[in-house]
């Protein structure tokens, strides 16, 4: 069964990918990535404001410790393996995801959180 993510229209993910993403909430990287907050953002009901859940996500993400490269690599590898069909559909490789996120994570967090 493929389910659309509420609020994101026609973007759909498989049950296997959903299960993988849900399992990541209990990983060591969960806190530094604020994965529970990500679930709240993606669970925003259609026709509801995205601003409160995004603000809550940013507050918790910005106050969290920076993820280590090992945390990111492990989490992203697991996600990419569980969602390989979705990545293939988008023309994205596991390597693209892991390498780019690790390369740009610190700068992206600094920009999102306005950290000098």
Please explain how this structure is put together:
It is built from 7 helices and 2 strands; from the N terminus they run ββααααααα. It is mostly helical and 116 residues long. It has one domain. Strands 1-2 form a two-stranded antiparallel sheet. A hairpin with a 7-residue loop joins strand 1 and strand 2. Helix 3 runs antiparallel to helix 4 and helix 5 crosses helix 7. The longest helix is centred in the C-terminal third of the chain and has 20 residues. The radius of gyration is 14 Å and the shape is globular. The termini are far apart.
Q: What strand line-up does the widest sheet have? A: 1-2
Radius of gyration from the alpha-carbon trace, in angstroms: 14 Å
Shape: globular
Class from secondary-structure proportions: mainly alpha
Q: Helix and strand string, N-terminal first? A: EEHHHHHHH
Taking the alpha carbons of the first and last residues, their distance comes to 45 Å
Poorly predicted tracts of residues: 1-5
* Count of individual beta strands: 2
Main sheet attributes: strand count, strand direction, barrel closure: 2 strands, antiparallel
| Portion in helices | 55-70%
Number of domains: 1
Oligomeric organization of the protein chains: single chain
How much beta, percentage-wise?
5-15%
How many helix segments? 7
Mean pLDDT: 85
């Amino acid at each position: 069964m493929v389910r659309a993510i509420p609020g994101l229209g026609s973007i759909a993910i498989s049950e296997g990918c959903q299960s993988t993403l849900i399992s990541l909430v209990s990983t060591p990287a969960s806190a530094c990535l604020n994965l529970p907050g990500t679930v709240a953002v993606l669970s925003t009901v259609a026709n509801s404001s995205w601003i409160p859940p995004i603000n809550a996500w940013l507050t918790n993400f910005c106050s969290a410790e920076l993820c280590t490269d090992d945390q990111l690599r492990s989490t992203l590898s697991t996600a990419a393996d569980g969602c390989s069909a979705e990545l293939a559909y988008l023309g994205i490789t596991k390597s693209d995801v892991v390498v780019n996120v690790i390369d740009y994570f610190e700068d992206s967090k600094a920009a999102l959180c306005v950290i000098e």
